[in-house]
Amino acid sequence: MDYLGIDHVEFYVGDARQAAFVLCSAFGFRLQGQGGPETGLPGQRSLLLGQGDCRVLLTSGLLPDHPAVDYVSRHGDGVAVVAFGTRDAGSAFAAAVAGGATAIDAPRTYEGKDASVRIATVSGFGDVMHRLVERHGAEGDFLPGAIEMLDGPPPPGTDLLRTIDHAAVCLEAGTLDATTRFYQQAFGFDLIFEEYIEVGGQGMFSQVVQSPGGGATLTLIQPDLSRSPGQIDDFLAWHAGPGVQHLALSSNDIVAAVDALGERGVGFAPTPDSYYRSLDGRLGAVDLPVERLRPRGILVDRDHWGQMYQIFAKSLHVRRTFFWELIERHGARTFGTSNIPALYEAKERELAAVRETTQAGL
Fold first, then answer.
1. Are 26 and 264 in contact (CB under 8 A)?
2. Domain covering 3-149: architecture
3. Three-state SS string across 219-243, please?
4. Which parts of the sequence belong to the VOC domain (predicted)?
5. Which residues does the chain have with pLDDT short of 70?
6. Where are the domains of the chain?
7. Is the pTM of this model over 0.90?
8. φ and ψ at residue 294, rounded to 5 degrees
């Protein structure tokens, strides 16, 4: 199938307004639309946030039997839907079901004055679903008749974040290969990268699947149970099963983005100075000066096509089960072999104290 990229992600949250306040005030998202019983979405309140081409839908259940209520009770706030844009939602739905996905919502069309949107929903991993989205007409209308869009264009030059680059998924041990095959068979994704990651005494297996056009990318990770328990085990325990560990937001200027988000109160996982002392020997010349990367903790790596710059934000979730990543690509299409261990080492330093407190029962 011809997947165009990650159209949007939907979080199920306990309080959509509170979650929206955090993303708007800290990460620079803007409220673009809203929906609820008055717009034909019974039992829920949904807020649409946007920045650049990133779209995030926040949904809270208003009634005890709404799926968002059960999700939040089990997992806490988290990603419940990763939506893929496609040219033909009906064909994508049929192909996914034929390839092993479970049908959740059959194709349905939402019509507006200037746009029509056809969507269908199938199973993904754990309790996470995939919405297949086919759009026609005006780009600004997210879901005609269900999400009421707010008037007013964004202020020019204010978007530091551009797209949802990829989603990272934590899986239970022993399920990685089967999950990769599922995405190959149900969605036609390709396995583009795999490696074994060591962080201290921990180990994890990683495989990256991507749509043929490169627009939608999932990094799939499972723990190595023969090694010491670590952050993937923490996620599976604190989240009560597999789920999205982080979403990466692309930027055209990661240095400016880190500075701006830092001024708004976002913390970032620190990187030791030793990482930068060995940088030239590992990678050679890099596009961004090291003196701009070092004080901010930004990491740099390369693949066959170019360079990439990455950093993890500290988790703002009470369970520490979700966080954001920032990434700037200079031609790179996949992932390098040194950044991923360094990123997870940085996250391990952040989570170590949390793990000790949790294990102590405090």
1. yes
2. Roll (3.10)
3. EEEEECCCCCCCHHHHHHHHCCCCE
4. 5-135, 163-314
5. 152-157, 353-362
6. 3-149, 164-359
7. yes
8. -55, -50
Are 12 and 77 within 8 A, CB to CB?
yes
CATH number for region 164-359: 3.10.180.10
Does the annotation list 246 as a binding residue?
yes
Q: Give dist(CA 14, CA 61) in Å, integer.
A: 8
166 is in an annotated binding site: yes
User: What's the rounded Cα separation, in Å, for the pair 24 and 11?
Assistant: 15
**Residue-wise pLDDT tens digits, 146-188:** 999 997 666 666 799 999 999 999 999 999 999 999 999 999 9
* Alpha-carbon span 102 to 87, nearest angstrom: 21
Neighbours of 172 (CB within 10 A): 17
**Burial group, residue 173, by CB count within 10 angstroms (0-12, 13-18, 19+):** middle
Question: Rounded to whole angstroms, how far apart are CA atoms 290 and 259?
Answer: 16
**Which 8-state DSSP code applies to residue 82?**
E
Q: Is 3-149's fold the same as 164-359's?
A: yes
State the distance between the two ends of the chain, measured CA to CA, in whole angstroms.
49
